[in-house]
Amino acid sequence: MIELAGLTKRYGEKVAVNNLTFAVRPGMVTGFLGPNGAGKSTTMRMILGLDRPTAGDVRVDGRPYDRLKDPLKSIGALLEARAVHGGRSAYHHLLCLAQSNGIPKRRVHEVLDTVGLTAVARKKARSFSLGMSQRLGIAAALLGDPRILMFDEPVNGLDPEGIHWIRTLMKSLAAQGRTVFVSSHLMSEMALTADHLVVIGQGRLLADTSMAGFIEQNSRSCVRIRTPQPERLLDVLHAAGITAVATGTGAFEVDGGKPEHIGELAARHQVVLHELSPRQASLEEAFMRLTAESVEYHAHTGTPPAAQRWGDGGGRS
Ligand SMILES: Nc1ncnc2c1ncn2[C@@H]1O[C@H](COP(=O)(O)OP(=O)(O)OP(=O)(O)O)[C@@H](O)[C@H]1O
């Protein structure tokens, strides 16, 4: 378990992490989500004692990191995949780590096998691709057989096979009862991996929720309608107790409506429809709405907020 209480980090005027309180529990994958610059890496560095909090407290298995007896046996972390001595082979990198932490040599062979690097174990780390470096970083995290694992953006720059491998590994580590804490700025990735979500923006806690709860709250659907008889349609819908909102592009949207229900109503009242399409808000869009206020650097696309709310799956003339 990792516990944060009022954790805060300032760099001069900048508040990178602002009064974070939450717990990361065992037996599940907890996704740590936030836009770029939200404070994820700073939080993870404080968990590992690499950055000193300005205020608050963080504990790993009930203790501050620097009071852990065998840190690598309590928590393993991948923060920066390329932070390896490039002139060393994968085998020697892991062997040095094992020897300086009282970890038996056989674990080096075991973790090389787990991450699929046995065949290239004697090659210099500087010749490794990003995917191989990520695997080596994960092997180092697993070396002490820790109950807690922490990965900072582990799928960045990986090909689909590498992404699938990391996803499967994280789930299997959680299924073994371990605590798995993984950061990402992609909701779509977390939706496939995490059981629990902690969302931050500008250093503040925005959500601490189960993935299932987040999906249930944010997977609302709507129906998009276009008609050459808008006034008639609105009257028919209004009489049926249905609220339609104009999108500003000549179409209407009914939040949570069913297309068959609206289509039948329109047919019964002889209203001509040119479009009747169900739409689903994606989790990525729900995440963007949640963090919209806290994104530091917006890209100005010129797209109006109403059009960004729902997936634009075509149908626009
Ligand atoms: N050593 C530092 N000195 C000054 N400011 C810093 C330092 N480290 C981080 N920051 C600032 O703190 C904020 C949080 O940064 P952090 O790297 O923790 O965010 P992040 O969520 O990990 O972002 P990303 O997804 O881009 O990696 C940013 O505004 C960053 O510029």
Automatic annotation (TrEMBL):
Q: A single Pfam family, by name?
A: ABC_tran
Span of domain ABC transporter: 2-227
Going by the UniProt record, its keywords in alphabetical order are: ATP-binding, Nucleotide-binding, Transport
GO MF, any single term = ATP binding
SMART domains per the record?
AAA (SM00382)
**CDD domains recorded:** ABC_BcrA_bacitracin_resist (cd03268)
Write out the ranges of the annotated region (Disordered). 298-317
Extract the PROSITE patterns matched here.
Answer: ABC_TRANSPORTER_1, ABC_TRANSPORTER_2
* UniProt-listed PANTHER family: ABC TRANSPORTER, ATP-BINDING PROTEIN
The text of the family note is: Belongs to the ABC transporter superfamily.
Q: What is this protein called?
A: ABC transporter ATP-binding protein
Q: Which organism is it from?
A: Streptomyces glaucus
* Upper lineage: Bacteria, Bacillati, Actinomycetota, Actinomycetes, Kitasatosporales
